Amino acid sequence: MFTKLGMINLLKSFEPRYEPPSRFTIASRVDNIYHKYVSEVKTLLQRTPSVAFTADIWKSGARKYYISLTAHLFDKDFEVVPLVLSLRQLTGRHLAVNVQSFIMFELDEKFQIMSEQRVGIATDCGREMVAATLHGLFGPRYACIAHVWNNVIKNGLCLWSPPNPTK
């Protein structure tokens, strides 16, 4: 991690005896934290009768696509508990079947969330996301109101670009 001489010198100026961890040590620690988090989330989800989901795909400034999946449930005091289930770089084509397979793997294999626990999923109105979630495998599909309003403002009011009759 800290292999550049400038960074090593900066760290040494703060604490001359400090030896930065190797990238292998950091990778091992991150891996341990990740597996502990997944285990804790699995335990929590097994005790929860109803779980709702959100899924989204977006493009970063570096032109890479990412997909996220979150779970939302209530605790014993009826406070909302949001949980990140997955955040991955999306490679290959963004076909509905690939998006659906990703979500199914996370829910079925990784977190073992039973179909009777799934009360719904909120997504944007992108064609592939709608097609991936339309069949009720994750509960009913709901349009994310934040995405809907963003599209209304962006495409309907034409504040940033001229009107596009196809949208």
Automatic annotation (TrEMBL):
The keyword RNA-binding does not apply. One of its GO terms (cellular component) is nucleus. Transmembrane segments: none annotated. It is found in: Nucleus. It comes from the Eukaryota. The keyword Nucleus applies. One of its GO terms (molecular function) is zinc ion binding. Its main location: nucleus. InterPro entries: RNaseH-like_sf (IPR012337), ZnF_BED_domain_contain (IPR052035). Keywords: Metal-binding, Nucleus, Zinc, Zinc-finger. This is Transposase. It comes from Rotaria magnacalcarata.
